[in-house]
């Protein structure tokens, strides 16, 4: 957004994200989080399914925050990250 507006000759002083992936994030300070409502979770699931994203399996006996992707789907290997000089 910043580069697009600057390409038009406009000066961008500050950008503030108010929505992310269709979710309202207004009022959250940087680093803060909030619980998602059931309808928000369902909306994200539908969006992921429509995009062909691999299914994540979540086991109830696993502590929250420990997600593992479906083991039948191999993740592509990534080249090592190099820092520009």
Notable characteristics:
alpha+beta, two-stranded antiparallel sheet, 2 helices, 24% helix, 85 residues
Summarize the structure.
With about 80 residues, this protein is an alpha+beta fold.
Roughly how many Å apart are the termini? 26 Å
Low-confidence stretches: none
Q: Write the H/E string, N to C.
A: HEEHEE
Number of strands: 4
Can you describe this structure?
With 85 residues, this protein is of the alpha+beta class. It has a domain at 2-53. Helix content is 24%, strand content 9%. The protein contains two helices and four strands, in the order αββαββ. The strands form two sheets. A two-stranded antiparallel ribbon has the order 1-2. A two-stranded antiparallel ribbon has the order 3-4. The model has no long low-confidence stretch (mean pLDDT 75).
SSE diagram, text form:
Blueprint: H1 2-7, E1 19-20, E2 23-24, H2 38-51, E3 56-57, E4 68-69
Antiparallel strand pairs: 1-2, 3-4
């Amino acid at each position: 957004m910043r580069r697009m507006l600057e390409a038009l000759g406009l000066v961008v002083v500050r950008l503030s994200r108010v929505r992310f992936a269709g979710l309202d994030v207004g009022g959250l300070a940087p680093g803060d989080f909030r619980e998602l409502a059931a309808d928000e979770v369902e909306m994200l699931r539908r969006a992921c399914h429509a995009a062909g994203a691999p299914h994540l399996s979540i086991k109830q006996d696993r502590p929250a925050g420990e997600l593992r992707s479906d083991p039948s789907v191999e993740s592509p290997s990534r080249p090592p990250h190099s820092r520009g000089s």
